[in-house]
Amino acid sequence: MALQEPKSMDECVYFTNRLLGNGKIRAWVFREQCPKCGKGLMGKPRDPKTGRAKIRSEEYVCPSCSIHLSSLLSFWRGSRVIQKKKSSEN
Length: 90
What we know:
By secondary structure, the protein is α+β, with helices and mostly antiparallel strands. It has a domain at 32-89. It contains 1 helix and 4 strands. It has one helix spanning 73-89, and strands at residues 12-20, 23-30, 59-61, 68-70. β1 and β2 form a beta hairpin. The model is unreliable at 73-90 (pLDDT under 50).
């Protein structure tokens, strides 16, 4: 399977370019199809006043059927905190 790069930022939920030591890292996460209707691409909810995505939201919304799904971000944050506590105990 070949690595597929995004053609635009509209295809991504997350994108970053970082420097790590002497190397560079480019990471992205593509938007996924809605598990309920299969028509729309899941994305962050939009602010009704400005129309911009709410970047700090921990849930994703389908623009076609308006289903809300919470992300695993809160679970990931919790496991990261537990790992930090374990490493500081040693």
